[in-house]
Each structure stands twice: as structure tokens, then as C-alpha cells.
User: Fold this.
Amino acid sequence: MAIAIVLTVRVLGSLPVLRWPFVGAIIALLADASAVFLLNLLDMSAMSHYQQFDKWADQVYMLTFLIVALRWQGVTRSVAVGLYAYRLAGVVAFEVTGVRVLLMVFPNLFEFWFIFVASLPHWRPQLALAPQRALSALPLLLVAKEGQEFVLHGARWLDGFTALDALHAICAWLRFPF
Assistant:
């Protein structure tokens, strides 16, 4: 039951991307992040292989991102398709081997690229993303994404961090009694 609820939230959270790419991407990523919290509250024991489930469930929002990216033109579209294929290869390699560090070797840079490109109309509507300019953004996005991948899959700092642990940490940081 917990798996069905989490998957439903992830699917429904991914659909706004098709109408509102940037805002929809934020909603999709919040729905993705909510999975751990939902499982903690519902029944985490139902998810003995969470990382495998999560990587395949990620394909839901990534496919909506890809559908939108296929409407783009030129370098933004080409880079998006290449980054999606690269991450998918990494997910397959992870699934075959179970080695989480492969998720760092094949980072989900597609996600960051999509958000970057989808955000442009909101903060730089006249910006023409020429190939050189577009490709110069990739190293910055890669550094940010590798940092996130290291926290999640290299150092595994959030493994075993429950929804209540997160809520307590946030409340403590805000100096709000919980």
C-alpha cells in the first residue's frame, strides 16, 4: 500500500511539468523528495530496496522532462536528450550491479539542465542560448549535481535519516521547539 501511495504522489507530481515546465519541475522534485517522508510515515519496511525503486520511479518525472525537452530546439534539446540517455545508462548499470557509486559516475545532470533551461524564460526571457553559452553552463551544473550525488550516494549522509529526524533538525536550526 505504501509503495502505491508513493508512486501515485510521484506520478501526479510529475504531470504539471507538461503544462508549466519550470514550476512543474519544482513540483515534481518536491513530490520526489516527499517519497522518503511518506514512506517513513506509512511503512518504510515495505521498501527494502528503496534505491532501486527510487531510480525507476525517477523515470516518471524524467520522462515528463524529456517530453518537454523534445519540444526545444537546437543545442538545448540535443544536450537534454544526451544527458537523459547518459543517466538512463547509469540507472541500468546500477540496477545490474547494485553499486551506488555508479550513480555518481552517471549523475542526473539531465535534471539540473532541464531546470536551468526551463527557468530561463522566467529570469532571462531574451537570452539566446547559443551553443557555446549553453555548454559553458554544464560544468557549473555538474559541480552542483556531483555535490548532491556525493551527499546521497557517495557519503550516504542521508541514509537512515527519517522524516522526523529531518523535522527535528529543521526545527532545531530555526530554534523552534518541537
Summary: Residues 2-173 form one domain. The first helix runs from residue 2 to 14.
